Amino acid sequence: SIPLSFFGGLGGASRAGILVKGSNYLEALSDAEIVVMDKTGTLTKGTFAVTKLVPEMGVAEGALLETAAYAESYSNHPISKSLLAAYHKDVDKSLLSEVEEVAGHGVSALLNGSRVYAGNTKWMERQDIQMKEPDEAGTIIHVAREKEYLGYIVIADEIKSDAKLAIEGLKAVGMKHIVMLTGDQKKTAANVAGALGIEEVHAELLPKDKVDQVERLFQSKSEKGRLIFVGDGMNDAPVLARADIGIAMGGLGSDAAIEAADVVIMTDEPSKIVKAIQISKRTLVIVK
Ligand code: ADP
Ligand code: MG
């Protein structure tokens, strides 16, 4: 049977905007030792703004953005939303067919009979498209039509206002190891990790690489220690399921992530993870 105070703990958590899907997870949280966090949407807002358009010689800025907006028009990724918002005009979807989206890479579609692409370096390399490798802070989206490189678009995300507090709080409640994982490029990842005081960061990961990283981190924890993964959703369901405690940020999170998670933070505040651990430790003191 479940000790009564666990219900108190679950209730307290829910009043704080933290949905814990069972007292076993509340108990596990008190043994948390390693916290692995996704970047986009978890530590950053996940709402990108276009900061720069860098077309190739002979390509207009408008054509660069238009091609990207058409390529992205069927995607739900935060990157797609930002490019479509910057485009301002409506996309005529009747011009598009054979739309494709590859996790951790980018998108492509047939636009008026020519294939257009938008995505990262890996995505361009996969199509054998020659591109520039700009030295810019921010997330770079490369754009191409057939084998012609049209240029790149820089988009920037913002760190959430309580992210620093969350990392400090996690250290204060005794987390031995905090790790950031992201599909985004190395430079952007290092900037965010540096600003937040996260020492270990792995970038340019595909969804399956995130699972591999978590598998590896499992080897480094104590027998009793538990590993938490926190993500916002987009492609994070496998790694949420693999962690001892999968936490989804419900504010922006996808339905798949909320389904796969053991704990859902109803707001988009990462500091609530600290709160969840505190409630768990307090509840266990009452039980014992
Ligand atoms: P994260 O781990 O930061 O949440 P994702 O796994 O969702 O990131 O995406 C990783 C990278 O893959 C992005 O930073 C981007 O370079 C590329 N990418 C993913 N989806 C798209 C898309 N719809 N358009 C362009 N690039 C994309
Ligand atoms: Mg993501």
Strand order of the largest sheet: 1-13-12-11-2-9-10
Q: Number of helix segments?
A: 11
Q: How many distinct domains?
A: 2
What is the CATH architecture annotation of the largest domain? Answer: 3-Layer(aba) Sandwich
In percent, how much strand structure appears in the residues? 25-35%
Bound molecules: adenosine-5'-diphosphate, magnesium ion
Largest sheet: 7 strands, mixed
Shape field: elongated
Estimate the helix proportion, in percent: 25-40%
CATH topology group of the largest domain: Rossmann fold
List how many beta strands DSSP finds.
13
Explain the overall architecture.
The chain is α/β, with parallel strands linked by helices. The protein has two domains: 4-45 and 158-287, 3-Layer(aba) Sandwich (Rossmann fold); 49-156, Calcium-transporting ATPase, cytoplasmic domain N, CATH 3.40.1110.10. Helix content is 38%, strand content 26%. The strands form two sheets. Strands 1-13-12-11-2-9-10 form a seven-stranded mixed sheet, sandwiched between helices. Strands 3-8-7-6-5-4 form a six-stranded antiparallel sheet. β12 (245-249), α10 (255-260) and β13 form a beta-alpha-beta unit. α2 (23-29) packs across α11 and α3 (61-72) crosses α4 (78-87). The protein is elongated, with a radius of gyration of 21 Å. The chain binds adenosine-5'-diphosphate and magnesium ion. Adenosine-5'-diphosphate binds next to α4, β5, β6 and β7. GO terms for molecular function: ATP binding; ATP hydrolysis activity; metal ion binding; P-type cadmium transporter activity.
Explain the layout of strands and helices:
Elements: H1 4-15, E1 18-20, H2 23-29, E2 32-38, E3 49-55, H3 61-72, H4 78-87, E4 96-102, E5 106-111, E6 114-119, H5 121-126, E7 139-145, E8 148-156, H6 163-172, E9 177-181, H7 186-196, E10 200-202, H8 207-218, E11 226-231, H9 237-242, E12 245-249, H10 255-260, E13 263-265, H11 271-287
Parallel strand pairs: 2-9, 2-11, 9-10, 11-12, 12-13
Antiparallel strand pairs: 1-13, 3-8, 4-5, 5-6, 6-7, 7-8
Bound molecules: adenosine-5'-diphosphate and magnesium ion.
Adenosine-5'-diphosphate is lined by residues 38-40, 72, 75, 77, 79-80, 101, 104-107, 118-120, 139, 141, 182-184, 234-235.
Family: Belongs to the cation transport ATPase (P-type) (TC 3.A.3) family. Type IB subfamily.
Subcellular location: Cell membrane
Organism: Kineothrix alysoides
